[in-house]
Write a structure and sequence with these properties.
With 202 residues, the chain is an alpha+beta fold. It is built from six helices and five strands. A five-stranded antiparallel beta sheet has the order 2-1-5-4-3. Strand 4 and strand 5 form a beta hairpin. Helix 4 crosses helix 5. The N and C termini lie far apart (76 Å).
Length: 202
C-alpha cells in the first residue's frame, strides 16, 4: 500500500547537476533502505518519505513495464543490468538515468540487497533512440499487454543481433564518439583561427 499519492506528471525536466551520481540501497524486494543526498535532491522527496517505500515510488507512467520486468529478471538471477529509465520526481517533473547495480548476497548465496548507481543520460540518446522505442513498447502494452511488448522488444533486439545491454552500450558509445569528434573539430577551428591571426598580424 502506498503512503504517498503519486504526483501528476508534467512535461518538464528536473534541473539537476548531471555530473553527480544518484545512489540507493534496497532490500531484495526493492524496498528503499538508503538514498544519498543526490537522490533526495533530484527526486524532491525527503529521506523520511523514501525510507521503507517501494523503489517504484519514482516510476514514471511513460515507462513501459517490460523494461522493469527484464531488469528484475536479470537482477533476481544475480546479474547486473544497465537500463535507461525515466523517473518521476515528487514535483511531477521527470529525469532520465542509466542504472548500474552491485548485488549483495549472504553466505548461502541468497540476494540480500541491491546497491544502485544512476547517472544522467545525454538528451540526444533519449530523443534519438530511447523515447521512440519506449513509446512503441508502451503503445503495444496498453493495447495488447506486457507479453506482447516483451515479444516486440525481443524481436527488435534480435533484428539488431544485440541484447538490451549491448544496445544501450552501443548508443551511449556512439554519442560519446560523436561528442569527441565535435570537440576535436572545435579545437582545430580555434587553432586555425589563432594560426591565421598570428600569421596575419606578424
Amino acid at each position: 500500500m502506498e503512503v504517498f499519492e503519486r504526483p501528476v506528471p508534467i512535461d518538464k525536466e528536473v534541473s539537476w547537476d548531471k555530473t553527480k551520481t544518484i545512489m540507493s540501497k534496497t532490500d531484495r524486494f526493492g524496498t528503499i533502505e538508503y538514498a544519498n543526498e543526490v537522490f533526495i535532491d533530484v527526486s524532491g522527496y525527503e529521506d523520511y518519505e523514501l525510507m521503507s517505500q517501494p523503489h517504484n515510488i519514482i516510476r514514471h507512467p511513460d515507462m513501459p513495464k517490460v523494461i522493469f520486468k527484464v531488469l528484475w529478471d536479470n537482477l533476481k538471477k544475480g546479474e547486473n543490468y544497465h537500463a535507461i529509465v525515466k523517473n518521476l520526481a515528487k514535483s511531477g517533473r521527470y529525469y532520465w538515468v542509466i542504472t548500474d547495480f552491485d548485488i549483495s548476497k549472504d553466505e548461502k548465496g541468497n540476494i540480500v540487497n541491491y546497491f544502485a548507481r544512476r547517472k544522467a543520460v545525454p538528451q540526444e540518446v533519449i530523443t534519438k533512440h530511447i523515447e521512440p522505442l519506449y513509446k512503441r513498447l508502451l503503445q503495444i502494452e496498453n493495447a495488447s499487454g506486457m507479453e506482447a511488448s516483451e515479444k516486440y522488444l525481443v524481436g527488435y533486439l534480435e533484428e539488431q543481433n544485440k541484447t538490451y545491454v549491448d544496445f544501450i552500450m552501443e548508443i551511449m558509445n556512439e554519442h560519446e564518439k560523436a561528442m569527441a569528434q565535435q570537440n576535436a573539430a572545435n579545437v582545430t577551428k580555434v587553432e586555425d583561427k589563432k594560426g591565421f591571426f598570428s600569421k596575419f598580424f606578424n
